Every structure is written in C-alpha cells, then in structure tokens.
Amino acid sequence: MKTFEKYIQKYLSKLGYQQTTKCKTDLVNTLRVYKCLAPSAETYVFETGEVQQLLNLGGTIPIKYKEENYNIPVKIWVLRDYPETPPFCYVIPTKDMELSVSPYLDHSGLVELPCLAEWNHKATDLNTFLQIARITFSETPPVFSKPKVSGRRKLSKDEFESVWEEHFPDEDEKLLKTFFLKSASETCRSKLGEEYSKTKAEVDSLHSVNKELIDRQEDIQNVLETMKTKEIETNEAVEIIEKTLDTFKSVIHERSKEVKGDDIEELIKVPNAAHVQLLEAMAQDEAINDCIYALGQALENEKITLEVYLRKVRELSRKQFTCRILVNSLQKLNLK
Question: Which CATH number, 3.20.20.140, 3.60.21.10, 3.10.110.10, 3.40.50.360, labels domain 1-146?
C-alpha cells in the first residue's frame, strides 16, 4: 500500500491535479477497500479529441448475482479537477465476455449512473460511487459470457476468404468484410494496448517495490551492525559492573568481620621490611607529638612542675629528631 501511495502522490503532482490531498485520500481509501484495483497513469482521449495523461484505477470489483460471486473488470479514470467533476468508469470485458448494454451502461462500456449525472462531491466520493455501481451491477450485470463454440476447426486465411466470397460475392459485401476486419483489428489493438499498459503499470509497481525493499534491506543491515556494536559495549559494561560488585562485596565482608586485639596489627599489611621500619618510625613520631601535647596539658593543670615538663620535652625532642631523620632517609630510599 505504501508503494501505491508513493506512486499516486508522484503522478498527482506530475500530472497537475488541482486538489492533490483530496484525490490521494479518495484513491488510497478506495485501494484499501478494493484490493484487486491498482493505480496507473495512462493516456485518455476525450470525445472532443483532447488527449490527457490521467490517473486511473484498473482491476476488478466484486458483485453478487443470483447468489453467485463475480468479478467485474473496470477502469475508473480520475480527472484533473476531481472531486469537482465525477470520475469516468468503464467496464472492460475480457475475451470471454460481452458488454450488456443497459440504461446504466452504453455500448463503449461507459458507466452512466444517476449519482454521476448529479454529482455532488460533498456527498459522494469514489468509494460511494463504486458501492452504488456494485449494487446496480448486482441487479443488472454489465457483462455476460460469450457462448462457447466447440468442435469447429479454425480456418486459414485463404479458406476464410474463399468461404466469404462464396457467401458474399458482391463488392459491397467485400467492402463490408474489409470494414469488419479493420474494426476487429482496431479492437484487438485497443485491447492489447490496454493489457500492455496495465502490465507495464504492474511491472513499474513491482520495480518500485523491489527498490524499496533493497533500500530497507540496507537500513536493516545498518541497524543490525549498530545493535551488534551496542551489544559488545553492553557486555563490556556488564563485566565492569560485575567486577565492581565483587569488589564491593569483598570490602563489605572484610568490614563486617569483628576485629580482636590480637588482629589489629594485621589490619595494615606492609609489603616489605623497609616499609615496616618506615611505618614504625612515623608512628613513633606521632606518638611523641601526643606525649608532648599530654605534658603540656599536665603542666597547664599543675599536675607536674615546669622543671619536669622541660626535662621530659627535651628527652622526647631528641627521640623525635632521631625518628624524623630515619623517616627522611627511608622515604629517599623508597623513591629510588
């Protein structure tokens, strides 16, 4: 259906239709209801001799006659000023059919219904017209089957001419024969032209569908490649999340353990002896800072004398000096 819509939109604009939106809506809605119809752009010759390229819907519409279902071959021409003017509908009989001329159908196959003669585009559209045509055709079929002739041998050209001359020897009758042959030839050419145009429209439509399928195939291939890339990125992200989750679980497990007095030393793991010595020296330095602070608090609270305070601070300062020299030496050694 999308292919038909594109085809209709293309030719409505190309052929100069006045109300393209209304035309497209009616044509597409009709195609949705009647699946056996297909759009085509062909040449139409008016009674005045004017020739125009017009859109039409060709195919069959279903009717029911005497409890039997039949498909009536039709072609509905849409004029350029549609919906201001009604469409032209022709019944196109097949080789096994003949037109049944009636008040609703002339000898050329043109459908003549009151709704067309009194056309009102506000109340009637293509769908409504075809529904009325189906009801009318169900009561008065527009075609009937040709009587089948069996057991007859096909005459050659020479045999046909000899038989004709035998029955119609006069010149006037020979002229009548020539007229009949010419008329039959023109009818055959017309039918062949219609079949060719219909087949060409179907082939063009199939080519358009094929091109659209190829384009869509490339789009699908690009989408699949994008999805594959996204899948790889997603799997990598999932792996990272799983590793992070395992790390969190390990940390939570370690923090949930109850730390005993004997295990305090094991909380900080030092890789080698030099680092152990550095850690001990820095810890001793901080401990001396704490002691000096505690002595200051004791002096302030008059729990020790100034003499005791100065003596202890001198001792601790000497130890702290030694610790800091050791820390500096070990840090330089580790940097190397």
Answer: 3.10.110.10
How far apart are the C-alpha atoms of 190 and 197, rounded to whole Å?
Answer: 11
- Reported as a single tens digit per residue, the pLDDT across 227-241 is 999 999 999 999 999
Measured CA angle at 44 (ends 40, 50), to 5 deg: 150
- Counting beta carbons within 10 angstroms of the beta carbon of residue 80, is it exposed (0 to 12), middle (13 to 18) or buried (19 or more)? middle
DSSP string, 87-123: PEEEE---TTEEE--BTTB-TT-BB--HHHHT--TTT
Q: Which of the two residues, 170 and 209, has the higher pLDDT score? A: 209
Contact between 233 and 69 under an 8 Å Cβ cutoff? The reply is: no
In sequence order, the 6+-apart residues with CB closer than 8 A to the CB of 37 are 30, 31, 57, 58, 59, 60, 61, 76
Place of tokens 């024969």: 177
The overall pTM is greater than 0.70: no
The answer for residues whose C-beta is within 8 angstroms of residue 326's C-beta and 6 or more apart is 277, 281
Q: Which amino acid is at 194?
A: E
Q: What are the φ/ψ torsions at residue 106 (nearest 5 degrees)? A: -90, 180
Q: State the pLDDT at residue 76.
A: 93
Lowest mean pLDDT among 134-148, 223-237, 250-264, 299-313: 250-264
Contact 55, 8 (CB under 8 A): yes
